[in-house]
Amino acid sequence: MIVKDKSKTNGIGAKAESLRLLSDLGIPVPRTYLIDSEDILGAISDEKIEQIIEFFGTQNLMAIRPSSTIFFNELPTFLYLGISENPKNFYIKITGELNYFKSYCSLIKKISVDIFDSDPDIFDDLYYKIITTIDEKKSSHQELVYFKELLAEYKIVFKDMTGEIFPQTLREQLRLVLNFFGKKWVDLIKKLDLNEEKPKMGLLLQEVVSSSASNYCHGKLNFIDKYSGKKVISGFIHNGIPHDISENSFERLAKKIDPLVTKSEVSATQNLLDQDQLETLKSFNQILAKELKDTFEIDFAVNGKDLTVLNFRSSEKSVKAVVQLTVDMVSQGFITKREALMKVDPLALTDYLHPQIVETEDLKVISKAVSASPGAATGKIVFNSNLALELTSSGENVILVMTETGPEDVKGMQVSKGVLTVRGGMTSHAALIARGLGIPCVVGAVDLRINLVDKKLYLKAGQTLSEGEEITINGTTGDIIEGECETKAPELTGAFSDLLSWADDNRSLKVRANADTPKDAALAKKFNVDGIGLCRTEHMFFKKERLLIMQEMIFAENKEQRFLSLDKLLPIQRKDFIQLFEVMSGQPVAIRLLDPPLHEFLPKDTEQLSILAKKIGVEFKYISRRSRELKEVNPMLGHRGVRLGITMPEIYQMQVRAIFEATSHVLKSGTGLVIPEIMFPLVSANKEIELLSKMIQEIAEEVYINHGVEFSYKIGAMIETPRAALRAGEIAESTDFISFGTNDLTQMTYGLSRDDSGKFLNEYINAEVFNEDPFLSLDQVGVGELIRLASARGKKSNKNLSIALCGEHGGDPKSIFYCKMLGLNYVSCSPFRVPIARLAAAQADIMGSSLKEKI
Question: Are 416 and 501 spatial neighbours (Cβ–Cβ below 8 Å)?
């Protein structure tokens, strides 16, 4: 490349920098002359015009491309400057006869429309008239004839609109275009109010590559598959029918297929791109990949044996392609593993972890809501959990569609392919359970209305869907789609596995999973977790036979009757914990004792209460009264969590006994080391811990005497209330660990309901009251301040205190970075977000190391 004053390419935009880089790397590019914006602001000087003409000569065609440090979509590119009537034959020799007339027409239209504000429709109408005629004639000779006619008409239109003959010399055309850019830049700077800090701008004047050779072509090539990241060649060639190309079908690439040539004439066409040129382009991509740590789409032109690179840009890539390319570059020695880890967005790994919709043109998106749990699922619409259980038992796929879900719907959610709710946000019941189950979920679909009487789903646009009709939900995008869609299964091997193994080697922050059942734990193990950070024991009670015993216990008239029901639950819980410990094979398991208020285990309507009364042999009148008594105005702040353990200690006694008996069983069987971590929810005072710790110690001694197996355990508190955060120093004196339940801590700090705030949060974010949804990413200023204070006070009281975060924020990269900064020991998130958290934790360590090096 020959560039006039090459140093001026610094800082005036990507195009100029790209050309300079190509030239520095020895990749052939067009001869280029760079003009700084200061040279043409206002009017171009005669001296500058003469310098340009001296540089290019008077009989070369030029392209003028703007380059700027900020994007201006109002700045056009002009091609084929210099083309004119005289010397016509010379330009025909450069471009070929047909291209001469096409290029000439193109320049006239461009200058007319962009510089003289002419109506483009006049030119387009003339052009389409010609094209239609050519298509009917099917003759390449006629194409030449008609473009000659089109050029004559374009000249007439130009003169009618401007009152002048189209300029016939390079000098005149240059002056016209450069003066246009000078005025345009002044107008844009004023329009965007950029007087204080003007963007750097320039013009790239480039020699147009000759297109006279019989094998002339120009096109674009990519060197990876944009979906998989595998090394294949794809792209197309201009000035002919576009072709998908690959090394396996090189002959299709190497033939020029003229749109006007019939099948019988194809064999007579000439080669466009030979194998050597293809290999050269591949080598150029490798040079750029080594230099810029990426792979590129390359714009090129071939004229005879001359190959010129016109431009390049980063190739379009899916997340899978990014991961594959990144791992490949490590194997090639282009980047280090730490550099590779920083090139992948952790949240983008979602595409790996769940089935995804195969995008087609006929997808009919009927509504859009909040994407609460990623992945895609198709099934029949059902409006209640019981029907979901009934249909799935006969092999049907269902999507559970409800206004909102509650604990009694968990069993229906477990069998459904996906969940759609009209109300709710990212931390609503439906969202949390769906993420834990690993099924797609879309919530807050406010444009939908459910009519349970008619069994219909009404859309705002007027469309109606009946129960039993199929829909597809995309939990990754929030789309609700009519009918069935094709999906792709996730792939978790190869490059994905390599990348995450490097992440594990580069992170100090542990990543655990929220897992409530052996199935959840096995899924967590599949994602290489460091243990279970939150086992929500209430989810163990929602299976049909267990729920009935739980309801029987709730309606017991006295403590003795409650013990009878709890004795039935004890072996069930013990078996749950045995399986959980065995699956985790000695990894730590943090078990949260019962948290929700008891009314959440009860039916909501009178009919179901009546059925329950008959099943457990209790008068309906008593059940009805008792259920009313249990109902609370604000259950989130009510009789739940550790408060149940204080007022009904027999419930926690049963759970703790089940944990310790399971521990003894596993230790005696020799299947692994178990040190259970017992966690109290909704703590607000150290006295709560002291009272319950004494009870736990007594049960531990009883189990040891009965089973003869020594075991250890840890006691911890969930910090979910602002008071607990502020009194963490005292709480730490009685605990081995604390874990921030940031879902509730965020609710209580903000005074927001995570189920209802979705109705107005977007308006708050748009008004910049909040920067983002505090339930999606941890509020580091408010909630984060409480976590920082609690961590510091806890560590001061107990230097051996382990500190964790187990809310949904445990899978959010920004929140993970904050946890790393505060020195937390681990985060815990739903199994399907574990890979995201592992990569984010590694990036937090790498960024932290970089900051230390700079300091």
Answer: no
